[in-house]
Design brief:
Helices cover 75% and strands 1% of the residues. With 323 residues, it is mainly alpha-helical. The protein has a single domain (4-320), classed as Farnesyl Diphosphate Synthase. The chain is globular and about 60 Å long.
Length: 323
């Protein structure tokens, strides 16, 4: 597996330049807002989205101002959605740091998220990036619909695999699809826009299934199980598969744990064991690898280059990562 350093090699200069431009895109005359956006930038994660965006753009053409704009738009949208999510979920932490709502309360957090969405609109209009705005606006709609679909379906535990994929396609995969599609558009490669969108969707689906598998930690030797999804009654692929294929007794026991005993560590551990024993994790891994291969097939006709090798490495990394 390629190391992150090797994956980053073709786009090191672009990532450094992007940080500067992204900071500028969040500037405000309000000191409190500047203080908060500085805090957000300081605690950034792995930066998978900008990496996918710049590698896609470089694989298809030449990175330009429009590419940096696309990266800023997507990152502003993503950050706004995380800030709002933390408020909705009443979360006090994100990636080991305090969440905005924990430090500055809900009202301020919601307003900061709104400010970022306004920057998405204004940046697009200032630079006349209407096509990019169209792609990003679609992502806002899909992410909201996916979240609402999950809330609607989560009340019942009879969710099908088809509905699960509908939810994660909109909630998670739509953002990576937006990243790859807007990268193609930014380098004047409309001919590859739909293909790159499909590529991003497939990578996003595989990425989410990998997250699902993490919840069953010790079953695949990556540390202790968290069982967080079970505690939150989230219907993930390993659990859905087992509920749809196991015997009546196991199904009854699993449903009882998820519905009534999801706060009890002993029972959560039991649920994790049942899912692992009944092939849920193996099935999810198989699905994840199928999606990864389908994603890589989208790149077959694209000429070889260091950026193409790196983006293949990044796809492999997303499904082999250990955290």
């Amino acid at each position: 597996m390629m190391k992150v350093k090797e994956i980053m090699a073709p786009i090191n200069a672009e990532m450094i330049e992007f940080e500067v431009r992204f900071r500028q895109s969040m500037r405000s005359k309000v000191p409190l807002l500047d203080k908060i956006t500085h805090y957000i930038i300081k605690r950034k994660g792995k930066q998978m989205r900008p990496m996918f965006l710049f590698l896609t753009a470089k694989m298809l053409g030449n990175v330009n101002d429009k590419t940096y704009d696309a990266a800023s738009l997507v990152e502003l949208l993503h950050t706004a959605s995380l800030v709002h999510d933390d408020v909705v979920d009443d979360a006090n932490e994100r990636r080991g740091f305090f969440s905005l709502n924990a430090l500055w309360k809900n009202k301020i957090a919601v307003l900061v998220g709104d400010f970022m969405l306004s920057r998405v609109l204004l940046l697009s209009i200032e630079k006349n990036n209407i096509r990019l705005l169209e792609i990003v606006a679609r992502a806002v709609r899909e992410m909201s619909e996916g979240e609402l679909l999950q809330i609607e379906k989560a009340r019942k535990l009879d969710i099908t695999e088809e509905v699960y994929f509908d939810i994660i396609l909109q909630k998670t995969a739509s953002l990576i699809a937006t990243v790859c599609e807007s990268a193609a558009v930014s380098v004047e490669r409309e001919d590859e826009a739909a293909n790159m969108r499909k590529f991003g969707e497939l990578v996003g689906l595989a990425f989410q299934i990998k997250d699902d598998i993490f919840d069953y930690g010790d079953s695949i030797a990556i540390g202790k199980p968290t069982g967080l999804d079970i505690r939150e009654r989230k219907m993930t692929l390993p659990l859905i598969y087992v509920l749809n294929t196991c015997d009546k007794e196991t199904k009854k026991e699993l449903i009882n744990i998820v519905k009534n005993k999801n706060e009890d560590s002993k029972f959560v551990k039991k649920a994790i064991e049942l899912v692992a024993k009944n092939g849920g994790i193996e099935y999810a891994q198989k699905k994840m690898n199928e999606l990864k291969n389908e994603a890589l097939n989208c790149l077959i006709n694209i000429p070889e280059s260091p950026s193409k090798s790196a983006i293949i490495g990044l796809v492999e990394y997303t499904i082999q990562r250990t955290k």
